[in-house]
Amino acid sequence: MERVFDFSAGPAVLPVSVLKKAQESLVCYPDAGISVLEMSHRSKPFEAIIESAEANIRKLYNIPDSYRVLFLQGGAIMQFAMIPMNILKGSGKAADYIVTGTWSKKALSEAKTQGTCNTAWNGSETSFKRKPANFELKLDKSAAYCYICSNETIEGVQWQVLPEVGNVPLVCDSSSDIFSKPIDITKYGVLFACAQKNAGPAGVTIVIMRDDLVAKSDDNIPSLLNYKKMSEAKSLLNTPPTFPIYMVKLVTDWLLDDVGGLDKMYVTNKEKAAMLYDIIDNSDGFYTGHANKEFRSTMNVPFRLPSEELDKKFQQEAKEIGLTTLGGHRSVGGLRASIYNAMPKEGVEKLAEFMKAFMKKEK
Fold first, then answer.
1. What's the angle, vertex CA 259, arms to CA 258 and CA 265, rounded to 5?
2. Does the model's pTM come out above 0.90?
3. Is 121 a catalytic residue?
4. How many CB atoms neighbour CB 313 within 10 A?
5. Has 254 been annotated as catalytic?
6. Which of 10, 97, 251, 349 shows its CA 20 to 30 Å from the CA of 77?
7. Burial profile 220-248: b = 16 or more Cβ within 10 angstroms, e = fewer
């Protein structure tokens, strides 16, 4: 069976060259005599892998020495609880949450189990079609942190310019747009991402955290939920997800060596997104996008057709020509094309041509 162009929101497409590299070393990793799947996390070969993965991440984001890079488990939802557990609980402060979609709403719900949280803005009244302007934010200048989701995968809204939060640490869920463009990491206190959308396979979560925030972890917090203890152990307090970390190493190798860095990746990502948005905007209402134009995501493009019947027909006919997983999230329906870093231009071009042909046939 030939590979299809899979537009899943996650677990999502990986670069074919990365998959082939992993395949080459799957049975016998160079100079190790065994697979990475069989390798001890305490071994020299794996030590080199995890150190290389961290070095790549530091290079991509130009991360200073005052930040830790951790490889954890539990996905983004674990971070929804770990962050308030370590930084908010016992601080005597509240945390601000800017709710711009399904995932920041979920993060707020989890955080409330650990301490007092303020909703600095909630976009539910506008169906999460946009991000707020700074004057709309009701921020606490003494908050423990301010939480955002940089890119909401379900609604397809993305922060193009970060909110102004003063000296309050900015905590960011970057699960679906990590490594998609250059950023200034020093503007964040914490940036985290589950890997399976844009950085690797499911199973590992990347956490980039400023040292002063790592130090806030209370010794009474269980070890595997404690940033300070995990940092001191260099993510090796227990057996980490070794193979997913290896895959993150390969994906970041690809970004650095094959793509040529995040500036070039961002140019490509904008070009891919423009192909689809241009068709939506010029369809005379046949295709309807969700997000307001100035907040549209370069990673996730949700849209609808005039009827649910046509939505289903679109998916079926697309699947027949190798364009798969184009259904919207089960909570909202419709259609969605996730066009992460690893989705090649050829896949987006093929989808764009299909969208034009389908519209011509059904309109």
1. 165
2. yes
3. no
4. 15
5. no
6. 251
7. ebeeebbbbbbbeebbeeeebbbbbbbbb
Question: Which of the residues 6, 96, 173, 311 is marked catalytic?
Answer: 173
CATH number of the 16-259 domain? 3.40.640.10
d(CA 174, CA 152): 9
Q: pLDDT digit string (tens) for 124-167?
A: 998 999 999 999 999 999 999 999 999 999 999 999 999 999 99
| Catalytic entry in 89, 96, 103, 177 | 103
- 350's tokens: 């093929």
CA distance 337 to 280: 12
At 90, list the tokens. 């016992």
- Is 171:146 a contact under the CB 8 Å cutoff? yes
Q: Which fold has domain 5-15+260-362?
A: Aspartate Aminotransferase, domain 1 (3.90.1150)
Q: Kindly report, residue by residue over 315-352, the tens digit of the pLDDT.
A: 999 999 999 999 998 878 899 999 999 999 999 999 99
Active site (annotated) includes residue 173: yes
* Domain boundary assignment for the chain: 5-15+260-362, 16-259
